[in-house]
Structure formats: C-alpha cells, structure tokens
Specification:
5 helices, mainly alpha
Amino acid sequence: MVTALGGISLSAIITSIIYGCLKGAFNKAIAKINVEKIADKATEKGVERVKKIAFTHDIQPLVESELVKINEKSTEVLKEELKKVSAKYDKVVTILEKLSAYFDNSIGVSEQAKTELKIALVNAKEEEVLPAESVVIVEEKVAKVEIEAPKKSTKVER
C-alpha cells in the first residue's frame, strides 16, 4: 500500500478528504432546499404586490358626457309630448268654439253667460305657448326656517 500511495503527497490526501467532506455537505444543503416552495413564496409575494396596486381613473368626463346625451334624449321626448299636448289643446278649443256657436242661438242661456264664454275662448286662443327651442328655468326659493329652543320652565303645564 505504501508503494501505491508513494507518489501521492500527504497534502493531496488531506485535500481529497476535505474535498469529499465539503462536497457531501454542499450536496446535503442543496438537497434540503425546496425549489417548489421558493417558487410558491415568490408567486405569493408577486400576487400580493399586484393586489396592493391601486388603479385610479377619473370617470367624471365620461359621466358628464353620458348625462348630456341623456338630457338631449329627454328633451326630444318632452318636445314630442309637448307637440301632442298642444295639438290636443287646440282640438279642445275648437270644440269649445263649436259649443259656443251652438249656444248663441239658444234662448235659455243668458247673454252674460254667452259673453263670458266668448271671452274665455279668446283668452284660451291667445295664451302664449313656449316655443320648442326655449328653455324653462325654474328657481326654487328656500324659506329660512328658524327653530326656537323649547322654553324651560319649572311649572308643570297641563
């Protein structure tokens, strides 16, 4: 055995023993590391970061433009309904004129009642109707309400 080891120095033997021990220790340490566990932890941390990111977006311009569209559509519907109501109103006035003419020749109705009916018809015809393009502005006045504190008294009121 001495002849086999004769060409190898003592330092080479110590070095090979240390190398074997260190290689075994490193292999054990690497085997203990769980790659899947590390990947799961990294994925969880990435998902948590994404959850913490806040997306902010100003929706006011979008809401305003949609409200303008809704207002335009409702205005068109109101104009159409106003035309229908105006036409029906004109028909009612026409019917009342015919009814007034019917009572002109009757004996049982007083002249004062006939005159009042004609005046009412003229007023109904002359009533101003708002043009379709005009805008109606309604102002509300808020009444100031003062609340008085209840009076404290020592007497019992019945």
